Amino acid sequence: MGSKPWLHPAPAYRTLETYWSSDDDAPGSRCSHTLTAVAATKSHGPRLILFGGVTAIEGGASSAPGIRLDGATNSVHSYDVLLGNGLGRIQAAGEPPSPRAAHAAAAVGTMVVFQGGIGPAGHSTDDLFVLDLTTDKFKWHRVVVQGQGPGPRYGHVMDLVAQRYLVIVSGNDAFWRMDVDVKELYLMPGFWTLPETICMAEANPEGDRPSARMYATASARSDGMFLLCGGRDASGTV
Q1: Quick check: helix, strand or coil at residue 69?
Q2: What angle do CA 116, 121, 126 make, to 5 degrees?
Q3: CB 100 within 8 A of CB 32
Q4: What is the pLDDT of residue 169?
């Protein structure tokens, strides 16, 4: 039997028309935000959750724009993938994260976890914020993290690996990992682990580690592999 091809053609892009019921529901133009896919719940299909970012830049189209952090937001918008029923703004109970951009987000079951970023007052704290979408009573939770953690950072990436490890890569150093309970993430204190003491997803820790970088992209595969691509290193090299 022949082996299956390793490369597969990428799916074609298509434009989706979105709409909203009120001006408050409209996300508007923004950058440095996150868009996270969340699994279906009992009352909702799979959704895309848009959070944060900045809504203002300096200069015009002909000049080199700079982000205005006073335009940072902590608004949350939801898009139902199956129904295609427009982008609606979510008002969740609890303590939300501060307005921020260049933060990281990851789906953990029917929750979204947010960490880091930068806002008008500077670096956001390294606290974890969880938006629980399991029921129709959306709620923010602040995760109690004990011991040393990744520290404030922005321009980093985060994802859930092997449905168990919450992994942060870069921002200002390489790897951090937290062993999480997918069902009770915010009910128990979390502990971050330094990269020198872990074997991520139980894989062989040998081999070349990526350099510390910002503005990379990353995604976790279903088989427990964490894929990292691109970014800018400490010297500014892409």
Answers
A1: helix
A2: 20
A3: no
A4: 85
**Greatest mean pLDDT among 16-25, 64-73, 144-153, 156-165:** 156-165
The radius of gyration of the chain's CA atoms, rounded to the nearest angstrom, is 19
> Per the confidence metrics, is the pTM higher than 0.90?
no
Q: Which CATH architecture does the domain made up of 30-59+66-233 adopt?
A: 6 Propeller (2.120)
Instruction: pLDDT band for 4, please (50, 70, 90 cuts).
Output: low
The one-letter code for the residue type at 215 is: Y
Helices (H) and strands (E) in the chain, counts: 0, 21
Residue 36 backbone dihedrals phi, psi, to 5 degrees = -120, 130
Domain ranges of the chain: 30-59+66-233
For every residue of 39-74, DSSP letters joined together read: ---SS---EEEEE--B--EES-TTS--EE-GGGB--
